[in-house]
């Protein structure tokens, strides 16, 4: 729990089960054996309940915020630890470690009781005013029966967020006795600290680097512990009369918030009304809650390589640290990708805005605040310690020549349909930045011929790569022309620019921005003209839309000791031609609804989409046709396939929206599009539900062969769009 500020007051929890080898739990790690875990409820603002399975233990953490005063009000957490299975004979001893971390400006003063126990922590910061944190005595779950707790404390200067776990782990080296009255004593590992300043070492009160204060409470399972934060101004403003947000008052608050969440959820998405099962409704609630619970406030400096205007000349210049900026954003996975991803965020906000349009306006405002003087926004935002510690060094630097799909325009288009006055007021303020961002994309990624476009920033053609990746496209290893060159024309990028022009013209018209309409109108019309799209991207020999470039299919990886796998190019030699790589990219004119319902190209696209030899699988549309020579192929010895067959929820959501769209428009393909929509929706929702029930997680991607979840988990970014698919809200 932290304040939304550059130097936050941060509170958190670690835990350990005592036994043969106590494991200290703090941050999520993919292989740590903990799980499933995730939010059952989270309203994005003032309430959440999370369940964590850790071996034989089940932890439930839940919080409520109570507004009041001038500093954000009070909040309370309750942590309940129970055995996973009922009737467990040997109940374990568990330590909870509640900590507070400051960044140097705040004051923390521990108030010590008679037996050296910590009564509470008083504090003050410029943002929070006076506050008090109190750890209440443990009780049995669900009632007020006290449970015996053993206490330890530790107080030091703040080692920095990435080192908190190690700092505690290295000091958990003393054995203490847990001696409940009338029971035999048990040994546990405890922190050997005290609350005297002279124990702090030479750094005094750690001025300038902040403080790290931990309370360890050790209790026999099952039990509950509550941590209460009380704001001085909220208490003075009337919250004191309401009573401390603890015990039965906290229980009541949690229950009323849970009930309010369920009611609002049904009112917003109407899953019950649409006849979805209780299991599907629970999946929908978890999908939304995981996305909202992952929203974060990040602050820091990004590393950027300036745009040198000439490709290939960027080696001569060093990356620069941009000035510090804040970013309030959803994330693909708070545990494994705790940072902003530009093209992911457009998909995230499609769901967030249905629930809380205000949150979407805040997030979009922050993203548009990252715009540089040219109109560029970096595609990954690695801001602050939490983000940086999860990013391999080669991905830290963003390149100011590289774009990313402009998906933020998807929630903008939804705002335009809704006519909410608050949304329109926001869009009026945001328009100059949206316009600058679109203009940068349209100009900087221009292709070799008019109205064509090319992603800048493909990987160099190294001898170890089967097909140089195109990370800026978002589709990373999706096969493109085998030999990267300036002659390439990228279909998906052209479709994104066409969508962008269309949305910006609609926005400019609604805002009465006549100059922008005059500038963008002709561009939108040209990009929307099917004959120009055909001329640039229809491949008659393949019968589909395709990229164009210097290409041959005759490439494969071959073992060549001692170099490992290297690329071999056979015959026919590469030549300028359409790229035979049937998959998500081929569908973009359909996905972004750029085709007329009577278009002669709609039929062939529906054919390949519905064909199980190509894109159709029982679990959703696969990213690359099973008939493609690149299907399931690794890109190098150490780079397994990513967008080469697996089922991804964001593109399946676009496909469902497009099929729903064409299924409601008069035309020769109306009935077929409607039928495919209902079949694809059943496949996608059914598989995500099965995998959720089997594993307790939403996943980054799903196997097109057996449907199992793959990649990172929990992945409650765009996979949460399964909720909008269930609600048929496109």
Description:
By secondary structure, this protein is α+β, with helices and mostly antiparallel strands. It folds into two domains: 206 residues, Distorted Sandwich (Beta-galactosidase, Chain A, domain 5); 444 residues, Glycosyltransferase. The strands form eleven sheets. The protein has an eight-stranded antiparallel sheet with strand order 3-4-5-6-15-10-9-8. Strands 2-1-7-14-11 form a five-stranded antiparallel sheet, with no helix packed on it. A three-stranded mixed sheet has the order 18-17-22, with no helix packed on it. The longest helix is centred in the C-terminal third of the chain and has 26 residues. The chain is globular and about 85 Å long. The two termini are 33 Å apart. About 2% of the residues have low confidence.
């Amino acid at each position: 729990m932290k304040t939304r500020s550059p130097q936050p007051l941060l509170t958190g929890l670690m835990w350990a089960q005592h036994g043969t080898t106590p494991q200290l739990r703090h941050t999520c790690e993919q292989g740590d054996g903990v799980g499933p875990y995730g939010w059952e409820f989270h309203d994005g603002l003032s309430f959440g309940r999370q369940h964590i399975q850790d071996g034989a233990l089940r932890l439930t953490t839940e919080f409520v915020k109570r507004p009041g005063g001038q500093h954000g009000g009070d909040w309370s957490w309750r942590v309940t630890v129970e055995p996973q299975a009922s009737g467990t004979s040997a109940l374990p001893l568990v330590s909870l470690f509640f900590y507070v971390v400051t960044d140097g400006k705040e004051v923390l003063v521990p108030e010590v009781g008679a037996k050296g126990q910590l009564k509470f922590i008083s504090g003050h910061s410029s943002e929070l005013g006076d506050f008090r944190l109190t750890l209440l005595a443990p009780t049995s779950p669900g009632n007020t029966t006290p449970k015996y707790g053993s206490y330890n404390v530790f107080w030091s200067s703040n080692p920095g967020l990435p080192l908190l776990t190690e700092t505690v782990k290295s000091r958990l080296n003393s054995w203490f006795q847990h001696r409940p009255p009338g029971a035999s004593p048990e040994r546990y590992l405890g922190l050997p600290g005290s609350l005297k300043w002279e124990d702090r070492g030479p750094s005094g009160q750690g001025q300038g680097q902040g403080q790290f204060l931990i309370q360890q409470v050790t209790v026999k399972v099952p039990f509950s512990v509550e941590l209460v934060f009380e704001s001085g101004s909220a208490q003075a403003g009337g919250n004191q009369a309401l009573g401390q947000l603890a015990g039965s008052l906290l229980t009541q608050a949690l229950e009323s918030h849970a009930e309010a969440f369920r009611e609002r959820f049904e009112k917003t998405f109407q899953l019950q009304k649409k006849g979805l099962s209780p299991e599907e409704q629970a999946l929908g609630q978890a999908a939304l809650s995981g996305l909202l619970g992952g929203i974060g406030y990040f602050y820091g400096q990004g590393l950027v390589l300036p745009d040198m205007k000439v490709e290939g000349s960027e080696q001569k210049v060093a990356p620069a640290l941009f000035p510090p900026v804040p970013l309030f954003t959803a994330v693909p996975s708070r545990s494994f990708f705790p940072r902003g991803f530009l093209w992911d965020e457009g998909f995230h906000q499609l769901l967030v805005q249905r629930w809380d349009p205000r949150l979407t306006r805040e997030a979009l405002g922050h993203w548009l605040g990252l715009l540089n003087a040219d109109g560029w926004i970096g595609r990954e935002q690695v801001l602050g310690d939490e983000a940086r510690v999860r990013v391999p060094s080669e991905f830290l630097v963003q390149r100011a020549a590289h774009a990313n799909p402009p998906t933020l325009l998807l929630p903008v288009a939804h705002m335009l349909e809704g006519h909410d006055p608050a949304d329109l007021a926001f869009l009026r303020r945001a328009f100059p930045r949206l316009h600058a961002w679109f203009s940068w994309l349209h100009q900087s990624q221009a292709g070799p011929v008019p109205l064509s476009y090319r992603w800048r920033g493909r990987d160099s053609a190294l001898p170890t790569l089967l097909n140089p990746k195109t990370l800026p496209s978002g589709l990373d290893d999706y096969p493109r022309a085998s030999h990267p060159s300036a002659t390439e024309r990228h279909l998906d990028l052209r479709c994104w620019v066409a969508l962008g022009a269309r949305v910006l013209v609609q926005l400019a018209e609604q805002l009465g921005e006549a100059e922008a309409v005059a500038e963008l109108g002709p561009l939108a019309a040209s990009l929307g003209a099917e004959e120009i799209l055909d001329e640039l991207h229809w491949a008659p020999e393949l019968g589909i839309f395709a990229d164009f470039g210097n290409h041959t299919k005759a490439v494969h990886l071959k073992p060549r000791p001692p170099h490992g796998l290297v690329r071999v190019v056979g015959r026919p030699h590469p030549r300028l031609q359409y790229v035979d790589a049937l998959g998500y990219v081929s569908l973009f004119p359909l996905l972004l609804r750029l085709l007329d319902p009577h278009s002669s190209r709609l039929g062939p696209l529906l054919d390949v989409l519905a064909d199980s030899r190509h894109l159709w699988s029982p679990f959703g549309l696969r990213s690359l046709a099973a008939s493609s020579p690149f299907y399931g192929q690794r890109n190098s010895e150490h780079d397994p396939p990513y967008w080469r067959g697996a089922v991804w929820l964001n593109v399946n959501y676009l496909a469902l929206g497009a099929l729903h769209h064409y299924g409601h428009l008069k035309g020769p393909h109306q009935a077929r599009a409607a039928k495919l929509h209902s079949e694809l929706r059943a496949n996608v929702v059914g598989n995500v539900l099965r995998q959720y029930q089997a594993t307790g997680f939403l996943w980054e991607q799903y196997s097109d062969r057996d449907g199992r979840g793959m990649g990172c988990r929990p992945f409650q970014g765009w996979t949460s769009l399964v909720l909008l698919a269930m609600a048929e809200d496109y």
